[in-house]
Amino acid sequence: MKLQHCIAMTLVCAACTDALADSADTGTWTANLRLRHEAVNDDAFLRSAAANTARLRLGWERGAGAGFSFGLEGEGVAELNDRFNSGANGQTSYPGVADARALELNQAWIGWRGEHGGAKLGRQRIVLDNQRFIGNVGWRQNEQTFDALALDARPSEAINLRYYWLDRVHRVAGDKAINPLARERRLHAHLGNASWTLPLGTLVGYAYLVEDRDVATASTRTLGLRWTGSRALGKTTLGWTLEHAAQDDHAENPNVVDADYWFGEAGLGWRGVTWKLGWERLGGNGTTAFQTPLATLHAFNGWADKFPVTPLNGLDDRYVLATGKLGTGRLQDKLDWTVAWHDYRADRGGADYGQEWNASLSFPLPAGLSGLVKVAEYRSQGFARDTTKVWLQLEWKY
Predict the structure, then answer these.
(1) Fewer Cβ within 10 Å of end Cβ, the chain: N or C?
(2) What distance in Å separates the CA atoms of residue 337 and residue 360, rounded to the nearest whole number?
(3) What is the pLDDT of residues 85-107, one digit of tens each?
(4) Helix locations, the chain, DSSP H
(5) Does residue 49 register a pLDDT over 60?
(6) How far apart (Å, rounded) are the C-alpha atoms in residues 343 and 383?
(7) Contacts of 67 (CB under 8 A, 6+ apart)
(8) Could you report the per-residue pLDDT of 183-228, keeping only the tens digit for each?
């Protein structure tokens, strides 16, 4: 049975369990409204993009007794102008802004939670670790969700085991995208993720076997190990992350894939500012490269999004990042800022891909609103073209 049929059954089960649940339990409602202006000046285009979009998300979750619960969530995205290429509006003379109009069922699931584990079946949000391999792409207006079966077990306080079977991914381009492969992909994927909390940090091992039944070249097997931790030394906090993964071809992939992923980051927190020095390498041999198509890509390799697909010669990203808080009086420490600088090079051959600056400032506003100003400036050294992006955003959550 296809998982889409299971989602329909989820809705029926929700109605049945609703009838059996305590009538006094009306469930929990959630709402999110986000207005965004995104300006893009990309030297590959004669025109600059100026995208105005709005996203409304409404959700409802309710317990059904005996550890069962169910949830529904709808999502609508409106294109408020046409001076950008959303992937659905046909405005190809403008740079792309992947916030296309949409009206979709974002989540529909039924779950069970016990003392030492649980399960969830249906369309759902899946976020693993730092979202480098599997994520919900929460930055885009249309969220990425999965038709999946999720199982988890916690045999002890220190150990957490998770397994997912993925049937389909609903991508951020939405159901109105002109390219059908940008809307959703049929999958047959097994994801295993095990974490162990130790005195010297948290160790995570993972195995992601993804068969993409629509794009065979995206079928890969990824095995990896991740170690994160932090230590307080007086008024200073030290943090670290080390990670390695190996990726090869899987299922019906016609290509021979043999690529490595390396990541290292050191952090220092002092006087309210956290400094990070990092290095990320996605291997490539000129024919194939390490890919992460189900990741929250915007969070990695710069906000200008010049590397959503790893170049065939791989990518070496070395960066410096600082984050902190500003504000006085009623706004004391309520303004969050981030500044980052990236240097990009090819893993194979060492070609200079360019450099990028990122900066953002988020702040609270009256009536439960929050604001965000964000900038990305990429300067090419022969890869892609110079690009500047600016975002202005208002968001309200309930």
Answers:
(1) N
(2) 6
(3) 999 999 999 999 999 999 999 99
(4) 3-20
(5) yes
(6) 12
(7) 112, 113, 114, 118
(8) 999 999 999 999 999 999 999 999 999 999 999 999 999 999 999 9
Cα gap 183→204, rounded to integer Å: 31
For residue range 297-347, what is the model confidence (pLDDT) as tens digits?
999 999 999 999 999 999 999 999 999 999 877 777 889 999 999 999 999
Question: Phi/psi zone of residue 173: left (φ > 0), alpha (ψ -120 to 50 degrees), beta?
Answer: alpha
DSSP readout, 93-123? TS-B-----EEEEEEEEEEEE-SSEEEEEEE
The three-point CA angle 144-227-114 to 5° equals 60
Q: How far is CA 290 from CA 105, 114, 248, 317, 355, in A?
A: 32, 38, 9, 14, 21
Burial group, residue 299, by CB count within 10 angstroms (0-12, 13-18, 19+): middle
Category of 349 on φ-ψ map: left (φ > 0), alpha (ψ -120 to 50) or beta: left
Copy the structure tokens of residue 288: 């194939």
* pLDDT tens string 9-36: 455 445 444 544 454 568 999 999 999 9
Only one residue has tokens 């969700």, namely 145
Chain position carrying tokens 């016990």 = 114
**251 three-state secondary structure:** coil
DSSP string, 264-333: EEEEEEETTEEEEEEEEEE-B-SS-B---TTS-GGGSS-TT---SS--TT-EEEEEEEEEEEE--GGGTT
Q: Buried b / exposed e across 279-293, counting CB within 10 Å, b at 16+?
A: ebbbbbeeebbbbbb
